[in-house]
Amino acid sequence: MGLIAEIPWLSNQTRVTFKRCGEGAPTDLKNYQRLGGYEGLKNALGLSSQAIVDEIKASGLRGRGGAAFPTGIKWQTVLDTDSDQKYIVCNADEGDSGTFADRLLMEGDPYQLIEGMTIAGVAVGATQGYIYLRSEYPRAQQMLEQAIDAAHAAGLLGQNILESTCSFDLEVRMGAGSYICGEETALLNSLEGKRGVVRAKPPLPAIEGLFGQPTVVNNVLTLASVTAILADGGADYAHYGVNRSKGTIPLQLAGNVKNGGLIEVPFGASLRSVIDEWGGGTRSGRPVRAVQIGGPLGAYLSNEQLDVTVDYEALAAAGGMLGHGGIVVFDDTVDMAKQAHFAMDFCAKESCGKCTPCRIGAVRGREVLDRVCESGATEDDLILLMDLCDTMEQASLCAMGGLTPLPVKSAVNNFPEDFDVAPENSEVAV
Amino acid sequence: MGYIPSESYEHVARAFSLSVAEVHGVVSFYHDFRTTPAPPRAVQICCSEACQAVGSRELESAAGQVLGVEFGEVHPSQAFRLERVYCLGNCACGPSIRIGDDVHGRVDSARLSELVSQVTTL
Fold it and tell me: What is the pTM of this model?
């Protein structure tokens, strides 16, 4: 392929989190250290716990899993909660369709995640970490396990890391094919060997998390970003980005796109330029009709709505959600009623069943959309569908039930022509 | 064994100090847990949005006929089971399938047949 600096697709990106990917064998520890790896941990070991957390706060880093909660505040809560045992849990249950950045990071630079988790452990006083990895990623499991073994052998995990007084151990735990286990409280239940059922919050996992102990639960990319922040300083990271979205975001361009893949750019990039310039339009050569951003729980935006910057708040204001940074492009052959049906069907299949709005609402929603897809919409169908969406949105326990209405409602509102009330179904005609 | 027979729930329950209902609850919750024997190799077809955008709906409806087995069933040759999967993380190169630990991209029904025939005798 040639040198990274000579490949425009790569050299035009702002690679902070993915800067080492492709620069050598992923499990070669010496190579990782030669490329600046473990500088962050060395710096962290020279700082007080509070100073590490302050550095994260200064970076403006927000959770990359999708919720975008400020990481420094989460760590502060765990640091401030007294306990003999605390945990660091990495959410590597990357179930959203259209996202693969976690996989690429774990397969391409596993030590960065290990180092980030170790820094988190040193910061909040946790001595045990778990990576909850989805079973669909067997290669990532192999890479992580090899890297963890090598880090242990080199004294970078285990007792007295780098001859300090800090200890940190790490294990990979495999999921078993459940989408909802990417929700942090369901994930904790699953790690404890239980059904992956969502827990009510409060208590926050930061106060009562894994086995009832204070727990940092962060996404792969969040923990990986920590290494750069501790190596180069929070201020350096914060100088990328715009408004309240600081740093860089690895976007994942997927679906019907000519040049798909991972593009790490500072927040503030234009969504249209990402799709048109990086993506080069659709793979089929047909016009872009719809773009789903933020996974199966993200909104479907129409082509006209793409003039928005990649920024958590700007996307929310445009009726969308950045989520984990997945961008799925559809051409003009897409049937949005079918996409709305899939969203409800997926929620019905993957709901944990704990709360009624999600468990029952998604099934009823799928039934309505069964009818719409089969014989066209009636006015009553659309009223009932919106009513179900409102109930799910406002009364569900977690983001799955709460956000499934987002793709459904955005499909109906942004693509009304696919939900036209058929003349024979219209009351006026009768 | 590759599966958890329901006759074993009592033993599992005793070993972990759980009720049989709790064991059943966990086993029935996760898609990867099975209660009947099945060949270890799965052929999984991704049915998520990113693959739908490039033709996985067509691949999904053709798969049964192409492979001679329905979703959720074991192929008569006992060589593999056919499953739907919701995202393999190969979303820029869909439609994606997984055979054992290998993920393949840009799969249409002809390539599905070809790939599966490489690992089994159809």
Answer: 0.96
For helices A379-395 and A405-414, the axis angle rounded to 10 degrees is 140
Domain range summary for chain A, segments of one domain joined by +: 17-239, 242-331, 336-425
Of A287, A302, A291, the closest CA to residue A414 belongs to A302
CB-based contact, B86 to chain A, within 8 Å = yes
Partner A contacted by B53 (CB < 8 A): yes
Predicted confidence band of residue A428 (pLDDT cuts 50, 70, 90) = low
Q: Tell whether B25 lies on the interface with A, counting CB pairs under 8 A.
A: yes
pLDDT digits (tens, 9 = 90+) for B60-113: 999 999 999 999 999 998 899 999 999 999 999 999 999 999 999 999 999 999
Sheet harboring A87-92: ordered strands across?
Answer: A169-174, A128-133, A87-92, A215-219
**The listed CATH number (3.40.30.10, 2.40.50.100, 3.40.190.10, 3.60.21.10) that belongs to domain B42-119:** 3.40.30.10
Q: Inter-axis angle of helices A138-153 and A101-108, to 10 degrees?
A: 40
pLDDT digits (tens, 9 = 90+) for A218-268: 999 999 999 999 999 999 999 999 999 999 999 999 999 999 999 999 999
ipTM over 0.85: yes
**Could you tell me which chain B residue has the CA closest to the CA of A333?**
B53
What CATH topology corresponds to A336-425? de novo design (two linked rop proteins) (1.20.1440)
* pLDDT tens for each residue of A261-310: 999 999 999 999 999 999 999 999 999 999 999 999 999 999 999 999 99
Helix (H) or strand (E) holding A264: strand A261-266
- Residue B72 touches chain A, beta carbons under 8 Å: no
B30 → closest Cβ in A177, A260, A329: A177
Interface test with A, best of B45, B49, B85 (most A CBs within 10 A): B49
Q: For domain A17-239, which CATH number applies: 3.40.50.11540, 3.40.50.2300, 3.20.20.450, 3.40.50.880?
A: 3.40.50.11540
Number of other residues whose CB lies within 10 A of the CB of residue A413: 14
